[in-house]
Amino acid sequence: HGRAHRYTTRLSYPSPMSRAFIRRASTSAARALQRELDVHKLYLLTSLRVDARTSRGASNAGRGSDEIIAEAHGMTHEARQGAVNARLCDEVVGLARALVSGTATTSAARDDDIDAMRARAIRGVGFHCYVDKSGVPHKESGDGLFVRGRVKAGGVVATYPGLVYVGTAMKYMKNYPRVGADNDYLIVRSDGSVIDAKPWGRGCLSATNEWPGEPIYLTDGEKRAAMNGSFLQRLLKPQLNEERRVELLNQCESLERSNVFAYAHFANHPPEGTKPNVVVASVDVALDDADAYLRRFVPNVNVTPDENDEASYEGLSSIMSDSKRTMSKRFSDASLAIFGEDRDKPRIVHETDNSAIRALVLVATRDIEDGEEVW
Questions:
Q1: What is the largest CA-CA distance in the chain?
Q2: Strands (DSSP E) along 227-354, which ranges?
Q3: Backbone angles phi, psi at 127, to 5 degrees
Q4: Where are the alpha helices (DSSP H) in 55-141?
Q5: DSSP single-letter state for residue 292
Q6: Do residues 164 and 358 touch, judged by C-beta distance below 8 A?
Q7: Taking all residues of the chain, what is their mean pLDDT, rounded to a whole number?
Q8: Which residues on neighbouring strands pair with residue 368, listed in sequence order?
Q9: Are 196 and 165 in contact (CB under 8 A)?
Q10: Which of 160, 208, 217, 232 has its CB surrounded by the most CB atoms within 10 Å?
Q11: What pairs with residue 358 in β-bridges?
Q12: Residue 4 has what pLDDT?
């Protein structure tokens, strides 16, 4: 924030547009700093988790917190981020393995018996999630997320299910551009991707099956409307092409809806004066061939931009949060993104493996006990 302030003082009489640019750049820089702090915290939490596992049954008690903190300070942000992602990916895979029928099977047989899934989760990892009336003393608190069993600090408590809209693919979202209309289950990952959990609901316990909903599943009437719409209508409300839509629909229908960890979207903010017992974390889940059978237990499907999408310009938030750029380079590229010609604007460079599932999880900041609400 201090750096951004120094840059603003160099402008003698900034125009209104320049002042707006400065405010947005400062906000983006603050978000980038917050992301670095979040990754640092997650590194410490997951380190304690890893140490607790490796020292279990051993004579030593693992490293002390001071040693872990010193290790974290000696690493670059990218190294910490990579370590956190690898650990959280292992956690998500571990939850998926716990839900597979049997102890060593790779069977793809489906099982929608929620009680059986809960029993497997308890046997496999010692807990499962469930939804019940929230204890938050607020008239709009509604349902909340709870744990049956016990979760250790640094472990993944729940996953945030739903469709993941990457970059310019957000134009396909329901009610675009007013995507937040009548939807309280949208969340943004650290890379700017948006997850919509509303169609997932309570999974197999939902009163009505809305999964995956628009834009993946269209009724015959919606298909006709999309095909016969005017040029302006198609411009304002783009639709996925049929081939991609069918491909995504097959992915959505392959997911296990009785996943007893896919309830993160029901977590509420804690009551006033109460510290949260989880922290939100983005994780890219990459499954190798040996773990491909676990795909159905990772409750997300990526909706990515068209390969020939000409609007793949990098956004201001992405530019200002890029730790690989110097601060002067961030401001230079941000200026081009706003004021530059199309040929000069920075374009998105997709470093995330497109085969990786872009997920979001809740990580316990302390031990969470049986029957405790998650927030």
A1: 72
A2: 278-285, 300-303
A3: -165, 165
A4: 65-73, 77-99, 114-125
A5: G
A6: yes
A7: 82
A8: 151
A9: yes
A10: 160
A11: 284
A12: 35
